[in-house]
Design brief:
Elements: H1 17-27, H2 31-36, H3 38-56, H4 65-83, H5 91-102, H6 107-111, H7 113-147, E1 152-153, H8 155-165, H9 169-178, E2 182-183, H10 185-200, H11 207-210, H12 214-226, E3 236-237, E4 244-254, E5 257-259, E6 267-272, E7 274-275, E8 289-293, E9 300-310, E10 313-322, E11 330-335, H13 337-361, E12 367-372, E13 377-382, H14 389-404, E14 409-415, H15 416-421, E15 435-441, E16 448-451, E17 466-475, E18 478-485, H16 486-507, H17 514-545, E19 550-552, E20 555-561, H18 567-580, E21 585-590, E22 597-602, H19 604-608, H20 613-623, E23 627-630, E24 634-638, H21 645-660
Parallel strand pairs: 1-2, 3-7, 20-21
Antiparallel strand pairs: 4-5, 4-6, 4-11, 6-10, 8-9, 8-11, 9-10, 12-13, 13-18, 14-15, 15-16, 17-18, 19-20, 21-22, 22-24, 23-24
């Protein structure tokens, strides 16, 4: 484009000039100021353009992977905006220029304009709230480093800035370079990896598989292909066909390498010529099942996961249950059917959920991650705020309607461009080949049409029941729904119905009227609590009014303990006594639930003579191992030892005597 338009820079082409013009317009700069601020202009234009497309594709600012990239470029653009004179959030207005210029060719950024605007503004505000503290701390590190004659900032320090203040490495590096320092990037990445290892230690099953060096798998594949036991494409895996297959056991792989046999209780990996186990991918968990010998001597192997450590090699990881598997044995590899059906129900339900969310919330609601297991499904999606109860109900209803309609679920292999041209949804970050697997649900209209390599039920009716368990936040701009289907949903319904029946029996009513009965009981409870509170207050008032005033250094003083009144009741009682004794020092204490509290009030004439309620309660609370304070006329304190409340109240008289002596 630079060559065609006769310019010497990408930024002088019409791909960027409208964006740069918008920056100049918003900043109110002259052409000379724009030229002087060339770097900030270019960073802002380039980063906002990239962020606009990322957010439109469902990538929101976050802490790892692609989400970190999005956060980094938004925050870097914001920082360079400060250099260009922008004090308030402005990136959304620059994104408008990107959408205007690119929207005709990329309609998705027009459709997702609200999400782009909202995400940019939210992230920029979030960054501006934290950047001052983070940059201030970085300035201190730079100053101390240069004072010592050191010009490399430790990577661990850069990571602390990121972990504590949200300051991306790229921004730390920019600021450091402006002061003549470099950042030890290898140390930063090492600190980040250590942090991730600590945070996720033991999080995944299959650590044993990681004990097998990659070279062992490579050698095993090479040996099997050299012996013509496996074709060039490797193990034949077809999780879309039947549930079991009779095949030869080609190899047994343990931590030490290839072995001819395995014993009961031993954890190894089996390599079969072919199998129908699904390997964990795209959020769907791996299949489980068994491999058993066809002939004597009998042996059985429990498959706990299907692994693909290298291209062409699929390994069934698990434990020998009985007998001794030998390489060369003929075996039957059988997928756990019930578990697979449960997984397929949940996977198809995630597609229905995705479509329902976009129908209810808008097209900005894009998948940001998922987990499909036999007992539940988890679906992450982009949305800026919590869903309302009404929205959740509409989503659940739409999914259940699709289930009850028993729509066909059709999977086909197609050229990728053809599928996308037909409207199939591809997930950002996933890698697709030239030929892709499409999953279409419904016909006219389609309820869902996505690129997906997972396993699915043939008709939605098999899902049975769909129930949302929860909805919540997992990161800024990303929500998560957890749900159940099929057998898990049935068990949940039975459990909840059983609880409702038991509750109805306890309340002496029917399940249909439990809600009304509980509501009536809660109202009755509230009325009783209000009545009890009134009685407590009346009792406390009676106790307080029975306290006898005494003269201390010419001041009327009332001090004493009032039952189990809380702090609020004590304040109200103090006000009552102040009204009765306008010129006085009043100190009341109590120990509700074993937590002592003291409230003191001093009339204006007492304050004029040098008394201070805050100092008084502080001295009193010290006896109980506590503290407090307040204004000269009113203060409150608390303590730890209720047994010393009386002694603490005695401190009030001591305080008045000493200060008015």
């Amino acid at each position: 484009v630079s060559v065609l338009q006769g310019v010497d820079s990408n930024y002088k082409t019409d791909l960027f000039t409208p964006i740069l013009d918008r920056i100049q317009q918003l900043a109110g700069h002259t052409p000379k100021q724009r030229l002087d601020l060339l770097t900030p202009y270019r960073v802002i234009a380039d980063h906002v353009r990239a962020a606009t497309f990322l957010i439109a594709d469902g990538v929101v600012p976050g802490n790892v992977g692609r989400n970190y990239v999005c956060r980094m470029i938004v925050r870097r653009a914001s920082r360079f905006g400060s250099k260009a004179g922008f004090d308030d959030p402005f990136l959304g207005q620059i994104a408008e220029a990107v959408i205007e210029e690119y929207g005709d060719v990329y309609p998705e950024i027009v459709r997702n304009r609200p999400a782009v605007m909202r995400t940019l503004v939210d992230e920029e505000r979030r960054f501006r709230r934290t950047v001052e503290t983070g940059v201030g701390h970085l300035d201190e590190l730079i100053h101390s480093s240069t004072a010592r004659g050191e010009y490399v900032l430790p990577g661990s320090s850069a990571f602390d800035l990121y972990a504590t203040y949200g300051l991306p490495l790229e921004i730390t590096r920019d600021i450091a370079r402006e002061s003549g320092l470099e950042v030890e990037e290898a140390g930063f990445r090492e600190a980040m990896e250590t942090h991730r290892d600590v945070s996720s230690a033991g999080a995944e099953w299959g650590a044993d598989a990681g004990e097998v060096p990659l070279e062992i798998y490579q050698q095993a594949l090479a040996d099997l292909q050299a012996a013509s036991a496996l074709p060039a494409q490797g193990v034949q895996v077809d999780p879309y066909g039947g549930f079991e297959i009779e095949v030869p056991l080609l190899a047994i792989i343990g931590p030490g390498g290839n072995q001819s046999l395995a014993s009961p209780g031993e954890a190894v990996g089996l390599v079969l010529a072919a199998h129908t186990f699904y390997t964990e991918a795209g959020g769907q968990v791996s299949d489980m099942g068994t491999v058993a010998s066809v002939k004597e001597p009998r042996w059985e192997f429990q498959v706990q996961a299907a692994l693909r450590p290298i291209a062409g090699l699929s390994v069934l990881q698990g434990t020998v249950l009985r007998g001794q598997p030998h390489s060369g044995d003929l075996a039957i590899a059988a997928v756990d059917r019930d578990r697979r059906w449960d997984v397929m129900r949940n996977h198809t339900a995630t597609h229905l959920l995705h479509g329902a969310l976009r129908a209810v919330l808008g097209e900005h609601a894009l998948q940001a991650g998922s987990m499909v297991a036999p007992d539940r499904l988890r679906f992450d999606f982009t949305h800026p705020q919590a869903m309302t109860a009404e929205e959740l109900d509409r989503v659940e209803t739409l999914v259940q309607q699709a289930v009850l309609s028993n729509l066909d679920v059709v999977s086909r292999l197609k050229p990728r461009q053809e599928a996308i041209g037909e409207g199939a949804m591809a997930l950002f970050g996933e890698t697709y080949g030239e030929t892709v697997r499409t999953v279409a649900i419904g016909d006219t209209p389609r309820v869902s049409y996505e690129l997906c390599g997972g396993t699915h039920v043939p008709e939605t009716g098999i899902i049975g029941t769909f129930l949302i368990l929860s909805e919540g936040s997992v990161a800024a701009g990303i929500r998560r729904i957890e749900a159940v289907t099929g057998r898990a949903a049935l068990e949940l319904v039975k459990a909840r119905m059983g609880a409702l029946e038991r509750l109805a029996r306890q309340l002496g009513t029917s399940p249909e009227t439990v809600e009304a009965r509980v509501h009536a009981l809660l109202e009755e409870q509230s009325a009783l609590e209000r009545r009890l509170e009134t009685l407590r207050l009346q009792q406390a008032e009676a106790e307080a009014l029975q306290l006898r005033p005494q003269q201390v250094q010419g001041v009327t003083m009332i001090a004493g303990e009032v039952g189990s009144a809380d702090a609020e009741t004590l304040r109200r009682l103090v006000d009552r006594l102040r009204a009765r004794y306008p010129s006085s020092v009043i100190v009341l204490g109590s120990a509700p639930e074993g937590r002592p509290v003291i409230v003191a009030a001093i009339s204006p004439d007492g304050v004029a003579r040098g008394l201070h309620a805050g100092e008084l309660v502080k001295q009193a609370a010290g006896v109980m191992g506590g503290g407090g304070g307040g204004k000269p006329g009113m203060a409150q304190a608390g303590g730890k030892d209720p047994s010393k409340l009386r002694l603490a109240l005695d401190q009030a008289e001591d305080y008045v005597r000493r200060h008015l002596a």
